[in-house]
């Protein structure tokens, strides 16, 4: 076994390397269980990609200037500005509902793949129809917590905004930048627990703030570091996909080519999101197994004991 480095900087780099390896291992396991249990994940992905493609197609036909003569756009323009606002709001609500379904269904599929020896699609659908409320409540609470943290951070950052000039202003600007970076990293630390709330709700048969609290407890302290690495990595990948899609759409010829690029970019983002949700569920399962057996009984007893009705 290698001796841990004695230099503080070397120890810090060694710890970062270890957490990166742990996050990579979780990602590999996520891909492995997705491929092994394709009969669970493929229907979920299909149920997400089909409506997502339709929503992307509706968005580009209604609001992209490259299609000013589409019948739907002309109808809305003739109906007035209120019709465009209502159509935009309807698309946003539909997208939010689809994201909620994706997060809930993926959490059920990932927890079943992790906890059941022989998971079946029928059992997954029965569990999803019967116990969807708990994970949905946990995901909604996580969204509220994210929004609250974001609003608080904005207010705090505006209060610390440097107003001086010269050396004093520069020092205040440096402090403001450091506080912003620290607040962003702290958000990812908190979000690693909030994002695992859906998986906790499925695994523990609970919901709401209790599921979020169980996720935070199971991923406390250093156990949460791989989750932070995963979130940072997926955010970077999502940003790269979004930037590449905008670049490709901007340079694509108007017409079917632009529509195809737009829809495929949205589908790629959804696939990346599905992998992220699976990885977060695997991350929670690993953290929960590393904790002492306080509850007595297996972690996924509720999943394994679900029998066809």
Give a concise summary:
By secondary structure, the chain is an all-alpha fold. It has helices spanning 8-36, 38-63, 71-79, 81-115, 121-131, 133-159, 166-194, 197-204, 208-218, 225-251, 256-290, 301-304.
Written description of the protein model:
Helices cover 81% and strands 0% of the residues. With 309 residues, the protein is an all-alpha fold. It has one domain (20-290, 297-304). α1 (8-36) crosses α10 (225-251), α2 (38-63) crosses α11 (256-290) and α7 (166-194) crosses α9. The longest helix is centred in the N-terminal third of the chain and has 35 residues, at 81-115.
Low-confidence stretches: 293-309
Shape descriptor reads: globular
- Gyration radius (Cα, Å) is 22 Å
* Biggest sheet layout: none
Strand content: under 5%
Averaged pLDDT: 81
How many domains? The number is: 1
Helical content class? over 70%
């Amino acid at each position: 076994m290698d001796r841990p480095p004695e230099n503080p900087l070397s120890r810090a780099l060694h710890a970062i390397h270890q957490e990166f390896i742990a996050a990579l291992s979780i990602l590999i396991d996520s891909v492995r269980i997705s491929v092994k249990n394709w009969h669970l994940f493929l229907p979920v992905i299909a149920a997400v990609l089909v409506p997502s493609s339709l929503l992307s197609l509706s968005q580009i036909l209604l609001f992209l200037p490259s299609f000013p003569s589409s019948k739907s756009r002309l109808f809305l323009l003739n109906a007035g500005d209120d019709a465009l606002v209502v159509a935009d709001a309807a698309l946003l609500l539909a997208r939010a509902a689809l994201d909620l379904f994706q997060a809930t269904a993926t959490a059920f599929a990932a927890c079943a793949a992790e906890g059941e020896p022989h998971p079946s699609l029928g059992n997954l659908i029965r569990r999803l129809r019967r116990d969807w409320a708990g994970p949905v409540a946990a995901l909604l609470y996580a969204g509220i917590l994210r929004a609250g943290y974001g609003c608080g951070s904005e207010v705090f950052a505006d209060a610390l905004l440097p107003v001086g000039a010269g050396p004093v202003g520069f020092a205040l600007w440096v402090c403001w930048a450091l506080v912003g970076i620290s607040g962003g990293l702290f958000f990812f630390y908190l979000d690693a627990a909030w994002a695992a709330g859906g998986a906790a709700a499925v695994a523990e048969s609970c919901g709401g703030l209790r599921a979020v609290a169980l996720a935070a407890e199971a991923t406390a302290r250093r156990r949460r570091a791989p989750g932070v690495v995963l979130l940072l990595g997926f955010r970077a990948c999502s940003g790269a996909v979004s930037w590449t899609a905008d670049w490709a759409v901007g340079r694509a010829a108007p017409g079917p080519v632009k529509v195809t690029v737009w829809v495929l970019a949205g589908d790629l983002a959804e696939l990346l999101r599905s992998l992220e949700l699976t990885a977060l569920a695997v991350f929670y399962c690993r953290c929960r197994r590393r904790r002492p057996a306080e509850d007595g009984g297996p972690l996924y007893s509720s999943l394994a004991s679900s029998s066809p009705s």
